[in-house]
Here is the input.
Amino acid sequence: MQMGREDSEYNKNVRKQYRELMKKCQLHMDELERELPPPREELATALKDRGVSRRDFLKWTSVMTAALMLPPVFRPVVARAAENFSRIPVVWLHFAECTGCSEAFLRSSYPNVDDILLETISLEYHETLMAASGYQAEQCLEKAMHDFNKKFICVIEGGLPRGMDGKFLTLGPKGKTGIETAREVTSKAAAVICIGACAVNGNIQAAKPNPTDAVGIGKALGIQTINIAGCPPNAVNFTGTILHYIMFGAPPALDSLGRPVWAYGKRIHDYCERRSHYDAAEFVNEWGDDGAKKGWCLYNMGCKGPYTYANCGKVRFNDGVSWPIMAGHGCIGCTETAFWDTMAPLEKPIHEATIGGGERTVDRIGAVLTGATVVGVAAHAVLSGIRHRGEQKEQEAHGDGRMTEEEKHD
Ligand code: SF4
Ligand code: SF4
Here is the structure.
């Protein structure tokens, strides 16, 4: 009885807090609609023109609301934020990288709602997509910074080389270094979103021996950035973060590496469809072996899912069709810091290099929690593998794998 009363008090409080939160969202979006120019393209028209039905849009709002860890009552708020998506002015900078993140976001063959939002985003400046170049491009950037001072979102793709006083990377007609440009633009932005591993932590440019002393934006400039990690990251994690910003006027909760917790709060291992095979010690031991054909766990083929925080298995890629582990290759840990160095060798388990050297593992991975996981996971794989091999041998010895009643008594 007592318990029931407490529970309903608790529920009442939760509902009250959600109502207050929703009111704040509505007020914030009212303000945004007053202050920013109207959307470049009405979302309803954009969806219709690209063959996305109202029903698909409503389905998408439910999925996005759940992904953002909000209760279902927030679905209309998420829909309204999506309608306002293209009001937010965005300045998109490129530094040391391959442009793969932009390519991955813009090249979908079957556009879903996330892709359409990205297509209609109000890009005030994007070096890869804009027609202008040289002085004309620089003027566009200056105009965007002036017109939308402290109102635009600065999205950065690529890291910053600090070597030679930043001169490994210069751009524009005045030959400014990447560091100078980044410092100037980010100081006028309402928020800075790093898109992809290069902007987040330097990625391949920062891998040993890192000849240009490349680092991520946050480290190069000493600022807090919202880090959409991955190589490339999932478009859903970017759109979800912008929607959160539109709804609440603030970035979502971030982990210690600046990644939104709603997208990077769990390990690949926790969402993996091969997890039951890991628990049962059923591993692929060679590409194309019987285990591979049966979809067993890829740990022994170097899968770094146990040490990698990301939602790839949940949101998948290419309109939710597949993701790397489903396609048959292990996770290489691309959302983690310095993964080219810390997760190497990419197609071998880390325990081969580190088991028996726990402290070294902790140093290499850079986080005590993750390091402890490495030792624990490696030990599980080795011990359960031994047990499993023992069982297999026993089965082989008995032909069909089952013991006769006589054999049991022997
Ligand atoms: S080790 Fe990799 S393949 Fe195996 S369950 Fe974990 S994430 Fe999935
Ligand atoms: S599965 Fe792993 S390597 Fe692949 S994209 Fe996701 S986090 Fe990166």
